[in-house]
Amino acid sequence: MTKLKVDLIADNLMAIHPLLYKSISKPLRSKTSITPGGMFVMDSLKRRGMLSMSDIGKCLSMPKPHITVIVDKLIDEGYVVRHNDSNDRRIINISLTDKGLIDFEDIKKSLSETLKSKLVLLNDQELEQLSEASQKMKEILISILSRE
Amino acid sequence: MTKLKVDLIADNLMAIHPLLYKSISKPLRSKTSITPGGMFVMDSLKRRGMLSMSDIGKCLSMPKPHITVIVDKLIDEGYVVRHNDSNDRRIINISLTDKGLIDFEDIKKSLSETLKSKLVLLNDQELEQLSEASQKMKEILISILSRE
DNA sequence: TATAATGGTTACAAATATATAACTATTGTT
DNA sequence: AACAATAGTTATATATTTGTAACCATTATA
User: Fold this and answer.
1) Domain spanning B2-145 has what CATH number?
2) Under-50 pLDDT residues of chain A
């Protein structure tokens, strides 16, 4: 019973994934020099605040050496900064800069412009439904998928 | 007004994208030899039936040479086959094999097993909400994002 | 028939992602 | 003090993705 519901959910998520990939990751690269990985890191920082290198890796299930590469590039571009941890000198915390935050928002706005050209095809009721459905999905997925 | 709603939707989609990436694309690689790109192609074929090489590229916004590489690999593994088009001999149509369809479903089932370990944290009401929200999102996104 | 356009492949280069091991510095434990 | 464990980096190799140009076969058009 719930088994079927879980399979249905998995099926829906599998269908949504390539659509988001196509309408988010792809247009991204024509708009900025930020890579998808860099965008994921900035999204985590925006959403959860300052994070250590290891925390970022856990958030995104990425190996630490990859995080180092991504963060190095984001630092070169002035989007994030390193902070030494006062309690544990092994730890390096990363946070968004003002420029990083502003550019991140700009990119999202730019993406919503692209999306808007598609969304105008929806009537008010569908727009409302998509707004509510995406909001609900975001909340539930964050609650179960974004830990550890 | 609707401007704000569009931005909200974009924000939600941007938040959902990395969660799906983490819980779908990543676990995929430990379970199969199929690459994310190959999975996207098989998903398109499952959803839309036989497609030409160019059609697949349009579906996924991928350049044709990349499709050739992905399809070559899927053929090596016996997941898809090429068909000559009887009307236009330039066109090569691709379809899933029985093995491709079965393995694709198996992988999705395997992914839903992984997901299920997370979804048990939800109560019946949340499960129902996620089921409905993902269903609605899938329908609307497909209707506006999967053309051309 | 000559030409342009289309569908697909091949070849190549560059960027990005993945994975592993080795290494330094620091901390925690005995 | 000796040791193991943790956080992060460096180095290296490989896989995947992205992008471009050139090419062949076929079809459409002038």
Assistant:
1) 1.10.10.10
2) 148
